[in-house]
Amino acid sequence: MKKVLIIGAGPAGLTAAYDILKRGGGEYQVTVFEESGDMGGISKTVNYKGNRMDMGGHRFFSKVKRVNDWWEMMLPMQGKPAYDDIILGNRKSLKAGGPDPEKEDRVMLNRNRISRIYFNSRFFDYPISLKPETFINMGLKNTIEVGFSYMFSVVHKRTENSLEDFYINRFGKKLYSMFFEHYTENLWGRHPRDIDPSWGAQRVKGLSIVAIIKDVFSKMLPNKKNRHVETSLIESFSYPKLGPGELWDVTASDIEKMGGVILRHARVCGVTVDPGSHEAKSVTYEYNGEKQTMDGDYVISSMPIKDLVGGMNDVPRGIAEVAAGLPYRDYMTLGILVPKLNLENKTKVRTVGNIVPDNWVYVHDRNVKLGRFQIYNNWSPYLVKDLKNTVWVGLEYFANEGDRLWSLTDEQFTRFAISEVVKMGMIDSADDVLDSHVERVKKAYPAYFDTYDRIDEVVDYLNSFSNLYCVGRNGQHRYNNIDHSMMTSFLTADAILSGKKDKSAIWNVNTEKEYHEGSGKN
User: Which of 60, 266, 290, 332 makes the best surface tag, with the fewest CB within 10 Å?
Assistant: First the structure.
């Protein structure tokens, strides 16, 4: 049997393991190394006293048929309810095709997508809409300035040397300064003028003022159900009943049933390569307090490129320097359980307890460090233990490992985050918080500055080893969504099972505009 060694049990690593075992005809022995005890990486679900937290928020939406088919196979779709039961979050058995979510755990729910920006104590749609409410919230002066600023950007296109140029070309300088500049700097710890424009090209894709206008008018057409929709403008998505981690727990269980091995609490610290044969030979890892080595025929890595290259032998000095300089942004979140939020629901969407219906809200208040908050009640009613009497909120902060915010103790961070939501008026006082829980995620977001402009040198070097494959968000140092990460693994499995040597398709996932916005035929 051929031995496949997979580093990391996130979406990319587990997808690769499952696909190779499922299609490999019993010819492959698969071992997955996972540093933590959890499955799913940043896509795990944290269960705190019956209240579940989604690390970063994960919508299940893709235009790639292969990904959608896989999700449906692993977690069958609940089916569209007879009325807005799922939107309301009621725990009723309104089975309308598919499994009954009240009785079964392995199920995907239908969810409404609502995300907004909280700016100047007002809510704005995200992406920015052309609703009357948007212009009322902006005020006449700002609305006029936004209009003229956008028209100027249409006539005077900037050379896109930075993310700032990218945003201004698509939204105008005024709208950029209101809704992109501060949030981006808070997210990355760098001003947009210091960030490579390719980040916007991958995340925003075809979204622009023109795309928003097209979307408004396309909804008026008779065949609006078949209209093209930019991914950033989707209005609904699928979501596992118990959060994204449910999918990866199910996947891990199936991997083990098929004979795959998942070593939990096994930290990979090195990959041995043979520069002569251009092959990866083995993986060194720490397990049960001992350093061990396992030989393999294939190595699939979803660990950060910085750590992968840092643990390889005989790496050329220039490649080592570029890899060591690749930057990341870390993530901290505080879950708070409260009886209510002081945010009035002025939308037409009904919710349990009349809370605002948002999945998450981007915070653009320059007086706080809070970057975003999630309302877990609205992701799935099954994430909250006492749905009728409590609201379970995730307060999200971006940091760098070792900086002032990251270095706070859990108790200090809890006090600080709660003081900010009190300042924002979301709750009256710290006494309103019934319970709380802190989570930290290292290297949550691969960043596009520092030595990133030379990453192609590292990619070429890694590709020189015929049996070494890099997959997923950190494995490719690319800000991928779940479906992107899964596709890198599907294509890797295809290459291994077919004996194909060319890795270009694996690295091209989420680089072409058509991939993200296409028909799902990829």
Answer: 290
